[in-house]
Write a structure and sequence with these properties.
The chain is an alpha+beta fold. It is built from twelve helices and 29 strands.
Amino acid sequence: MHMQSRSFWRYRYAGYILFLGLCLAHWPAWGQERVFTRQDTLRGSITPERAWWDLQFYHLTVKVIPESKRFEGHNLIRYKVLHSHQVIQIDLQEPLTLTKVTQDQKELQYRRDGNAWFITLEKSQEAGHTEEIVVYYEGSPREAMRPPWEGGVQWEKDSNDNWFIATSCQGIGASVWWPCKDHMYDEPDSMRISVNVPAGLKNVSNGLLIGTEEQSDNTVTFHWKVNNPINNYGVNLNVANYTGWQETFPGEGGALQVSYYVLPESLTAAKKQFEQVPKLLKAFEHWFGPYPFYEDGFKIVEVPYLGMEHQSSVTYGNKFSNGYLGRDLSGTGWGLKFDFILIHESAHEWFANNITYRDIAEMWIHESFTSYAEALYLEYYFGKKAASEYVIGVRDIIQNQARIMGYFGVNHKGSGDMYPKGSNMLHTIRQIIDDDELWRRILRGLNEEFYHSTVSGKQVIHYINEMAGQDFTMVFKQYLEDIRIPELEYEIKNGTLHYRWNKVMDDFAMPVKVRLGQEEVVWLHPVANQWKKREITGKTLEADPNFYIVTKKRNGLKR
């Protein structure tokens, strides 16, 4: 398959789809400083009221009342005391409200500061001890305006007028619908989720279903158990008149229970479309290592929005068609060989749910690797050329108007370029490593080294540097923190090639593969703003298109 021409309408329309869809951030104009509030800091930083305790376990209990669009419930929070402190921060967003907090059955005093709740503990909190509090809450949670990018709770009806309810909360935060420690640096080691819904409906959440209880008020409670650590936004609640089926995937970690939950009217289409699921699991275990949550199974759950990477409960709304809502964002044809949401959101089980960013400023850790996973899926089934064409194709939707790295400590994520540009950054680094088996060992090694961990970008970059035996620190910095595409500037004169990197950070240095003349393929090692030269026989230079750079031929350079 050959790359097709990129027409103007495809560029604009695909860009609209991706950046009004997948883009999760709005940056100030380049050079302007973003102004943050106290609420941003309370949400995005490890405050003193968070730092002193280590989250161990949640048992979230929620009663869903569709007719009034209300939640009522409580969350048991178990934690280990790291050092003595008497005030604990729990997060819950307006218009929801806490109604009571207890420890050892005694009610506690608390105060609210916006979406942060500060609870005064009466019992002495001694280092090394394990304690619990129970937080009760109620209200009508914020309705999702444009899920999943502007999340909350979605109250829809299916074609038979049954309720079709779903939560989505990346970015806005899990505290938009349940009380928790709403910062990514700390995860519970395990969790239980109990959701009460009207009879005739089913709840699907994370982990394994361990029981259901019929209640006297014509409702049913579904109990789910999550056996592994889970990030806050990965927790979800889905309510509908679900039907479905199960199968077993023979994976690297043994027999994996795979479950599907869809609306009855979707069953036929879903059974055909979801034939891709065992294929994607096989491909991603090849590239990334064993699925990280065998004990919790793997689910695809139909929802009324596009989809999200909820851990072991991947949500899906891509209309049972290949591509991104039926469109190929790469413009090459390869994007129609797979269901974008199935592939992208499932790959997040490795990069987002297994390896999780400590601060949303480094959301690229999730999205760059997962966007590149789309190409890796193609490579596994269609070959390396298909993968390269796909990655190169999505360059047309890179905007380069704001940097990928967000601001730290204020719950701020960077530019949506973290998807296509992040993917091309990794593809470029792979070319420099120039060893596909080593590249695969790096991807698998990341998931082993940081298994069930929250990490910083420095940790990820350091691991890649160590495994590759090369220092890519400035390469990552250039693509993540600068909007300029590295420009290979050159001149060929009298059998001599002069070359350098332009439009880069001062310390930038990156090797690049080029073709000189018709035959000779060589590696150049340009550096920032400093001319180098070499003798050549050819009269032309063409950079390997797998490198995300631009080239610029100059004449009459002043050196």
